[in-house]
Design a protein that fits this description.
Blueprint: E1 2-6, E2 14-17, E3 27-36, H1 39-46, H2 49-54, E4 59-60, E5 64-72, E6 84-87, E7 90-91, H3 97-100, E8 111-112, E9 124-128, E10 132-134, H4 141-144, H5 147-157, E11 166-170, H6 174-185, E12 190-195, H7 198-206, E13 211-214, H8 224-227, E14 233-238, H9 243-251, E15 253-261, H10 273-278, E16 282-285, H11 293-303, E17 312-317, H12 321-328, E18 335-339
Parallel strand pairs: 11-12, 11-14, 12-13, 14-15, 15-16, 17-18
Antiparallel strand pairs: 1-2, 1-4, 3-5, 3-9, 3-18, 5-6, 6-10, 7-8
Helix pairs in contact: 5-6, 5-11
């Protein structure tokens, strides 16, 4: 079968032939239909510092996917051939304190597909049946393929109630845009999305996020009067990983404000803890999704009318992976999807 593989510890990816994976007794084999390109995949392609210390080569990459089950392991009783699924991208140990308490999202021994173990950018992908998410309704495969990053957005945006609150979202990448949409869907009074990219802010506006701010040209405080914001924002969703964005967010929170942090910094971040302490701010780190509560919440949001399909801006055949990765890494696109069907 064909697979997109990081074959060597250097920049670049290759499309090569590898064997179809064997299916263990507790696994399912999935015929992959779509895969999404995550920022993590771009890091691996570029072979930056994070990738170099995290990924052992060779490695099939990719963790955003959907497809159809074509084989089930001998011990699998609750799934069947023909079901359309996606999958939770974190494999957990099941035995650490968090797992035994039912809090698998904070497993101390998590392994990520596509970087710790082989991923889903391939024609056939074998995974533990326990990680499969069966969609409870018909769904566009393109949207199904991005339920992993959509889950990141949902997990972050639901950390704190947004109803009637003023919400600041920093970082208008695909996950940031989806988080802003979720906050708005919850009934936030105002949602302001910031970035340095006019292209991504324009995409957010087309999807219904009308209050945007290019912080390279406009002072964030200048948006206060037109929104009726007096003291700052109640809830912050930091999606960019930018130290400058985080420090700005801290400066623009009301006293007692709450910040959820999903964006991952590349370097150490220096902040003024005095502001956090004396303004009584809450900083909540967020990673991944709650397994499988966030998947349920995301499905409920979609079935209730939240439309995230517009965040997908580019579609390619998997054979065009080089062009797809170039677009995904240019900082201007929305979500990029690759099609693995004939």
């Amino acid at each position: 079968m064909k697979a997109i593989v990081k074959t060597k510890p250097e920049e670049g990816l290759e499309l090569i032939d590898i064997p179809v994976p064997e299916v263990g007794p507790n696994d399912v084999l999935v015929k992959v239909q779509r895969t999404g390109i995550c920022g993590t995949d771009v890091h691996i392609a570029k072979w930056d510092g994070w990738a170099a210390k995290t990924v052992a080569t060779p490695r099939v990459i990719g963790h955003e996917f959907c497809g159809t089950i074509v084989e089930v392991g001998s011990a699998v009783t609750d799934l069947r051939v023909g079901q359309f699924i996606s999958g939770e991208g974190h494999y957990v140990c099941g035995r650490c304190r968090a797992c035994l308490a039912g809090r698998r999202e904070v497993c101390a021994n998590t392994r990520g597909i596509g970087y710790h173990v082989d991923g889903a950018m391939c024609e056939y992908f074998a995974m533990p049946a326990a990680n499969a998410w069966v969609y409870p309704f018909d769904i566009d495969p393109d949207v199904a393929a991005i339920f992993d990053p959509f889950g990141n957005a949902v997990h972050t945006a639901l950390q704190f109630p947004c109803l009637a609150e003023d919400v600041l979202v920093s970082g208008a990448g695909p996950i940031g845009i989806m988080a802003a949409l979720v906050a708005q869907f919850q009934g936030a009074r105002n949602v302001v999305l910031t970035d340095l990219s006019d292209e991504r802010l324009a995409l957010a506006q087309r999807l219904g996020i009308h209050q945007t701010c290019n912080v390279g040209r406009e002072e964030l405080r200048d948006v206060y009067p037109r929104l009726g914001v007096r003291e700052g924002f109640d809830v912050g969703l930091e999606m960019s990983g930018s130290p400058v964005a985080l420090r700005s967010m801290i400066d623009h929170m009301v006293h007692g404000g709450r910040i959820a942090l999903l964006g991952t910094p590349v370097h150490d971040v220096e902040i003024d803890l005095g502001k956090v302490i004396f303004n009584m701010l809450t900083l909540q780190g967020v990673t991944g999704r709650r397994i499988f509560e966030t998947w349920y919440q995301g499905s409920a949001l979609i079935s209730s009318g939240l439309d995230i399909s517009g965040v997908i801006t580019h579609r390619f055949a998997y054979t065009e992976f080089a062009e797809a990765f170039a677009v995904a890494g240019d900082g201007k696109s929305g979500k990029v999807i690759m099609n693995w069907e004939d």
